[in-house]
Amino acid sequence: MTPVSDAVLDTLHESATHIFTGALEACNIASAFDRRIGFEGSRMHRLLPDGSGPATIDLSNYRRVFVVALGKAAGPMLEILLERMKRRKGLRGICCTNQMPKSRNWRIRYFEGGHPLPNEDTFAAARTTLALLRKARKDTLIFFLISGGGSAMFDLPIDGQITLDDTIEFHRLLLASGAPINEVNTLRKHFSAVKGGRLAMAAPEALKVSLLLPDVPLRTLDALSSGPTSPDHSTVAEVRDLIAKYGLAEKFPVPVREFFERTDLPESPGNKGWRPPFMAKQPRRMTSAVTMSGEDAAFRDSVFEILLSSHDLVENARLQAQKAGYFTVVDNSCDDWDYADAAKYLLERFHELRRGHERVCLISVGEVTVTMDRMPGAGGRNQQFVLACALELEKYPGEHLTVLSAGSDGIDGNTDSAGAIADPTTVSRARSFGFNPRESLAEFNACPLFTALGDSVVTGPTGQNLRDLRLLIAERV
Questions:
Q1: What's the CA gap between 388 and 446, in Å, rounded?
Q2: CATH class of residue range 3-25+310-475
Q3: If you count Cβ atoms within 10 Å of the first and of the last residue's Cβ in the chain, which end, N or C, has fewer?
Q4: What's the fold here for domain 29-306?
């Protein structure tokens, strides 16, 4: 590579990083909140009502207000809601996130749940939340602030004989299975006492307002944190098919395997085969803005609002790329694909596009899957994807190509990196540092390689979680 070429690659790295961070900064939770929800005195207004659910809720009609915030964005979401509501008598709540907020409200109990695997606070937060929700009556309004990551950091098995260690291994096996997130969460819902609508069922008479920051496709919103407040329409039969499909039964801890083998394994709330343990009264309000209806009154007494989604992330990335002068194309068709298949597909599309344009940026949002056949090293799906791309980019020496993939939450797998950047020199530079890139890929250990090269994307926890962003950028000089 000539010094000029090195300079061009440095510029491409900077451009990719700028597009990613700019898109993330544009997805401001406070601004999104104010576009959807407004407070005026004691009244809360839904600013974009679609005819389903009440457009206005008078908080003065409720003696108590509960707030349950869970997921990676729980802290910022909770802070914004409390600020907008001002001081409120009868307010109590729970916050379960993986990064403790710097400022805390005395009315809220805080838990630092584990991610990507559960910990003791995972169980404690779930138990405390269930105890709080069971105090709710008709005069109670409940805000659920739900973002991605809650599946791991907020959990409690239905079967009380299943321990925390069993639960950790259950989650680890699901993450290593290579199953797409909707299938993983189908299994989690049937395992958990707080997923698949069971939080809603714990407070059947209360009005429940779920404010969502999804890290899942909008077509599968009930997969967000495994759908604690939305009805689950998956079935026990589907669960058993998935366990067989991924060969999980023989890997599960014995108590988990025995639980899923039960002949009376319960269906989830919202499923036609489920029967409530109580007689729900006639609902007073209609259902959600995102069509997550259920047969039980507890769900019909619910409202759902999406604050931000991956659509906002990709649209802001597109605007950033266009502003930088790139011909921009969005292709999200490889969502939930195996990382290697996604890398092959996007690189083929990328090469087609750059043949017709001097400056091109291919954008893809969503998540890829990684199937692990051993204990992983340090890495995550974004770094795994980028390293797979780097091995292909090596075939194009001297060309000005860059690939970035990073998580909007600022965390990739078991590392402190959000993701990584690669170009045609990545593999040769890694070898000069003593790395074997193919070995790093096989061992799911990409983070040390990218860290040594200075090509890790590091943002720190963002308080956001809108899925992953992939950028493939080329320039002809």
A1: 10
A2: alpha beta
A3: C
A4: Rossmann fold (3.40.50)
